Amino acid sequence: QAQGDEFVGVVLTCRGTCLVQSMGAFRRFSALLGLSGVLGSQDLRKLSLLQWNPHWQCVVWDMNNCVEEAGKAFTAELEKKDVDFANLIEYVNPSGILPREWTNVRSAPTCGLDSLDLVYNHVRWAPADDKPAMKGCMLTKPPDRPYVIQEFVQRGGSGRVVVVAAHFPHPKGYWDRSLVELAGLRDALATFFRSTPTRRVLLLADTNEFTHTTNAEIMRFLNVPGGATIGTELKPSCCYDDGFQPTGAFDRIIANFGASMDTTVLFDPLPVWAREKKDGNEGAFHKGIHGSLASPSVGVSLRGTPAPWLSG
C-alpha cells in the first residue's frame, strides 16, 4: 500500500492468497507495474467507455447546483467503472476535478459556445507518438459542433486506437438520414488517417440521431475503415425536456473492432439536480451511456502486452 499514490485502495496480503479490495484500483496498480493479465484478466479484456452530455442548461442555469453535482457524478462514474475513454459535452473544463488517473483534451475554443472534453485514463493510455489531437468544428458558418480526434497507445504495450469525441449537428428533419451534416468530421478523419496506419476506431458522440439511423450508417458515412460495427444499444438518452422519447437514442459509443458491447444507461432514474427548469422551460439534460467493449476470446497477454484485437 502506497500513501498518496495511485496504489491507495489496493490492499494485498500474501500468505498464500491475495486480497484485492478494489478491482478498479488493481487495474490501475497492475498497469503501472506492467502486471496486466496476472489477475482479473477477464476484466482486462474490456474497454470501459462513457458518453455524456449534461447539456448547457446545467452550466448556464445551474438551478439545482447542477454544475457541482454533475461534476461529482461524472468523476464517480470514472472511478466506479474504471473508464478508459469518455466524452463529456457542454460542461465546464473538468481538469480541476478529475481524479488523478484521468486527463482531459478540451475541444478548440472556436466552435461558438459549444465544447467537449475527451477524457482518458493516462495510467493505461498515452497520446501516440506525442502527437497533438486534431480539433475542429463540424459546422463552419458559423463555427459550431466540436470534435477531437486523438490516437492513443496502450502503456506497456503496442496497442493503438483512434478515439473520436464529437457533438454532431442536428439533422435537417426527423426522417432525414442523409447524414450530410457529418461531412466536416468525415473529411477530418480522412486527413487524420493519412498520418497513421492505425485503423481501430472508437467514436463517442452525442449524435443527435434518432433510432431509425443506425450505428453502421454513421460509421459508413464517416468512411471508417473495415470491420464490423459494434455499438451501444440505441437507448433513449435524450432529453429531459421531451420526456426521453423512445426514439431519442442520441448518445452512442461505436467501434469498428471488438466482439460485443454491453450498454448501461446512467442517471436513471433522473436525479433531482438534473431537472433544470427556468422561466417555465425545462433543460435538455441527457442521460449518460456507458459501454463495455469486449474483445474476442484471445485475452490479454502478461506484462501489459496488448491482445491482437487492439493492434493496428
Structural class: alpha+beta
Question: How big a fraction of the residues is strand?
Answer: 25-35%
Distance between the termini: 36 Å
Summed over residues and divided by their number, the pLDDT gives a mean of 85
* Rg value: 19 Å
Counting H and I runs of at least 4 residues, what is the number of helices? 6
Q: Roughly what percent helix?
A: 10-25%
Chart the SSEs and their pairings.
Blueprint: H1 23-33, H2 41-44, E1 46-52, H3 56-60, H4 66-80, E2 85-89, E3 102-106, E4 116-121, E5 125-127, E6 134-140, E7 143-154, E8 160-167, H5 183-193, E9 201-206, H6 215-221, E10 230-231, E11 251-255, E12 260-265, E13 277-278, E14 281-282, E15 289-294
Parallel strand pairs: 1-2, 8-9
Antiparallel strand pairs: 1-15, 2-4, 3-4, 5-7, 6-7, 7-8, 9-11, 10-11, 12-15, 13-14
Structure report:
This protein is an alpha+beta fold and 312 residues long. The protein contains six helices and 15 strands. The strands form three sheets. Strands 5, 6, 7, 8, 9, 10 and 11 form a seven-stranded mixed sheet that branches. It has a six-stranded mixed sheet with strand order 3-4-2-1-15-12. It has a two-stranded antiparallel ribbon with strand order 13-14. It is globular.
Features:
312 residues; seven-stranded mixed β-sheet; six-stranded mixed β-sheet; alpha+beta
The gist of it:
The protein has 312 residues and is α+β, with helices and mostly antiparallel strands.
